[in-house]
Amino acid sequence: MSHTTAPWVIADDGTIEARFAGLVGHVANVSQANARLIAAAPTLLEALRVIAESEEYHGDTVICDFETLQNVARAAITKATGEAA
């Protein structure tokens, strides 16, 4: 299964659009919080992939430091909630 990749944006009329592909969907009677969460889905998925595929150590070498993981997670949370994480 594939999905339309990010970035998704919320238009004033309630549509959710991918900037390069046009309309992704229209959600009627949805709160702004839910619309932000739906539009953030591709970003959240990518953040989870980065976190899931990271390795703290490989021998003596740090592959992905904790600060990088926090930054990826915080950016996804901010997009989903509209608030700084």
Secondary structure blueprint with pairings:
Elements: E1 8-10, E2 15-18, E3 22-26, H1 32-39, H2 41-53, E4 57-58, E5 61-62, H3 66-81
Antiparallel strand pairs: 1-2, 2-3, 4-5
Q: Based on DSSP secondary structure assignment, what is the total number of beta strands?
A: 5
Strand arrangement, major sheet: 1-2-3
Number of domains: 1
End-to-end Cα distance: 30 Å
SS-derived structural category: alpha+beta
Principal-axes geometry comes out as elongated
Average pLDDT, rounded to a whole number, is 75
Number of helices: 3
Classify the helix fraction into a percent range: 40-55%
SSE string:
EEEHHEEH
Q: DSSP strand (E) fraction?
A: 15-25%
CA radius of gyration is: 15 Å
**Unreliable stretches, pLDDT < 50, 5 or more residues?**
none
Q: Specify the biggest β-sheet.
A: 3 strands, antiparallel
Question: What does this protein look like?
Answer:
- With 85 residues, the protein is an alpha+beta fold.
- It is 44% helix and 19% strand.
- The chain has one domain (8-81).
- The protein has helices at 32-39, 41-53, 66-81; strands spanning 8-10, 15-18, 22-26, 57-58, 61-62.
In short:
The chain has 85 residues and is α+β, with helices and mostly antiparallel strands. The protein has 3 helices and 5 strands.
Give a quick set of tags describing it.
elongated; 19% strand; alpha+beta; two-stranded antiparallel sheet; 85 residues; 44% helix
